[in-house]
Amino acid sequence: MSLVATQTNEARTALLASIVDSSDDAIIAKTPDGMITSWNRGAERIYGYSAEEMIGKPVIVLIPPDRPDDMQGMLARVRNGERVEHYETVKLRKDGRLIDISLTVSPIYDSAGKLIGASSIARDITERKRADEKLRAANQSIDARTALLASIVDSSDDAITGKTPEGIITSWNRGAELVYGYSASEITGKPMSMLIQPDRPDEMEGILARIRNGERVEHYETVRLRKDGKAIAISLTVSPIYDPEGKLVGVSSIARDITERARADEKLRAASLYARSLIEASLDPLVTISPQGKITDVNEATIKVTGIDREKLIGTDFSDYFTEPEQAREGYQQVFSKGSVTDYPLTILHKDGRITDVLYNASVYKDAHGEVLGVFAAARDVTEQKQASQYARSLIEASLDPLVTISPEGKITDVNAASAGVTGLSREKLIGTDFSDYFTEPQKAREGYRQVFSQGSVTDYPLTIRHRDGQITDVLYNASVYKDARGNVLGVFAAARDVTAQKQASQYARSLVEASLDPLVTISPEGKITDVNEATIKVTGVDRGKLIGTDFSDYFAEPEKAREGYQQVFSMGFVTDYPLTIRHRDGRLTNVLYNASVYKDVRGNVLGVFAAARDVTAQKRAEAEVAEQRTKELDRLSELERFQKLTVGRELKMIELKKEITELKSKSPAGGDADR
Fold first, then answer.
1. Could you tell me where the beta strands, DSSP code E, fall in 337-471?
2. Which of 332, 499, 511, 530 is the most exposed place for a label (fewest CB within 10 A)?
């Protein structure tokens, strides 16, 4: 070998040695039996041993105890002429730590081709392995999360679907099958427009357009079409699906069937509207009040009675609209403390100064948990109430008959002045006492009102009232139960007729009206019947309940004439002997003469017409009899006149004849002598 070639080989060897020594990888050489013969600085850094410590030592020093055969296996492969590349394994550092390495092992041959050792290059991949492990764990977590999400989607009762940005369905969960009725195989690949109702052709395109603009549609309530053709209400949430680069690749939607909820909401809405309509229809001022005494809502009647708009009323102090604000404040505070008030008197002040006396009935209202939210208060205009009360009371007090109301327990609840007079006790002392205490036969009196409760009424029930001074009055009681609007019996109304004066007394109040044989009726300005007596029921054959509220004119042979009659009363104030013919429901006709006049409230406002019909059948019969008698008398008179004329005529002729005879005698001498 030449000197130049030797120098070149030495330089090359030196370069290779320098590369090996400066490498970060652990490059070591060992005999075929695994004894270390070289150890670079990279090996020192990776394994922690210096070259002095390791050269001459078996490479097994670096093998973890749990891998005793790991190195022997690789050396065996090298001895067989194989090369081991990128073998990932674990080695033991000097400090006892395990490190991950990627190992490449190659055989070393001499110039004769004889195996003289093995070289290995080990790269520390601990950090990479850790990163790989983290990535693997992350991927496993993602896979698990993906599987979990897929399971959640598939098991959801909501319809969860995927579609392309153009609206072609790409995924369809079991919830969608339940909600829409289509299987995944039927619908995947089809346009979402299959589910849109014909009257909403642009709805889905509008939603997709919003998604393409990057928007999200949440809780959008709409209607979809099921496979069976039924329309269902749904709440829809639609979201865009992006790929890792942020490109829109699809759309996901979650639809919840809210048909039942929508129906319930509709019922609730209808109920709310119904309740509101009832509130607004009320002629009574209605108001809700917060715990702080602020108005939270009012109806139209409240607006009218105060003269202030709803918007201006809401949020203001309830007490500001009364002549006595402190009393109003005490009123609603009493409701909050006690739960309710009844007939609480206040005076509402209109913005123009007008005042309205009212009685408030109020109670608290609560939420579903029983928490008090506020007060609901209704004001009744006492003016109208007083008018009605005065009208009824005046009829009762005007009665000369003792009138009394009796509770189911037999206690007197009200009396008129006649009752006070016939017993000698004041109203205050009578009310609350036993009805039967004021009769000579208390047990019989007790049996009487019990009979009314059991049978509904009694007629001409005989009793004897005992005055406190011992005076007694024989009476006949006519009594019936009275009821509330629901038909519940509240008590007995009883009228006692003094039998002695019964034929002479005028009829007062309801009991007297009912005793009338003449059909009596009250008529509203609209021509509707507002009340009738028993005689009206009998003459028409129609129950009171069916008569009241119907047209007065419906019960006559000539409805238009009947209508003209009551209209004449409203225009003129009264009519007298207005002829009509009442038609019974079985076809019978009754000729009557109506006498009618308007009746008014305390302010002089006309409330209606009170009309009394007198059955003129008997009168007409009497008139016919009189006419017949008159005719007979006239016939007799005529006959007498003829007889008289005949008699007088004969007498006149006799006188004339006598006169002629006398004249003849006076003229005849013989006649004269004869006379002499």
1. 340-349, 355-366, 372-381, 403-406, 412-415, 457-466
2. 499
Please work out, in degrees rounded to the nearest 5, the angle formed at the alpha carbon of residue 390 by the alpha carbons of 387 and 392: 110
* Phi, psi of 197, rounded to the nearest 5 degrees: -70, 150
Q: Is 7 helix (H, G, I), strand (E, B) or coil?
A: helix
Q: What is the mean pLDDT of each run of 10 residues along the chain (676 residues)?
A: 56 66 85 90 92 91 84 80 85 92 88 87 86 72 60 76 90 91 92 86 83 85 91 90 87 87 76 71 90 94 94 95 95 94 93 93 91 92 68 78 94 93 94 95 94 93 94 93 89 88 45 80 95 93 95 95 94 93 93 93 90 83 76 78 74 81 76 48
Q: Would you state the structure tokens that stand for residue 587, as one six-digit string? A: 């076809």
What is the amino acid identity at position 241?
I
Counting every residue, how long is the chain? 676
Q: Is 26 exposed, middle or buried (0-12, 13-18, 19+ CB in 10 A)?
A: buried
How far, in Å, are 279, 339, 342, 360 from residue 378 at the CA level? Answer: 10, 14, 10, 6
Q: How far apart are CA 342 and CA 335, in angstroms?
A: 9
**Residue for token digits 């959801």?**
156
Identify the helix (H) or strand (E) that includes residue 131: helix 126-155
Which parts of 165-260 are beta strand (E)? 169-172, 217-225, 231-242, 248-257
Query: How far, in Å, CA of 67 to CA of 47, rounded?
Result: 17
Structure confidence at residue 503 (pLDDT): 38
Q: How many CA atoms lie within 13 A of 531 on its CB side?
A: 13
Cα–Cα distance between 348 and 589 in angstroms, integer? 53
Q: Answer for the pair 98, 121: CB distance below 8 angstroms, yes or no.
A: no
Q: Shortest CA distance to 247 belongs to which of 165, 149, 161?
A: 165
pTM to 2 decimal places? 0.32
Residue 580, CA atoms < 13 Å, CB-side half-sphere: 30
Give per-residue burial for 441-474: e unless 16+ CB within 10 Å, then b: eeeebbebbeebeeeeebeebebebbeeeeeebe
Token pair belonging to 1: 């070998």
**Three-state DSSP class for 453?**
helix
CA distance 381 to 346: 10
8 A C-beta contact, residue 42 and residue 26: yes
Phi-psi region at 541: left, alpha or beta (left = phi > 0; alpha = psi -120 to 50): left
Q: Hey, is 607 helix, strand or coil? A: strand
Name the token pair of 249: 């690749």
Q: Comparing C-alpha atoms, which of 510, 461, 457, 451 is closest to residue 480?
A: 457
Please tell me the predicted confidence (pLDDT) of residue 353: 93
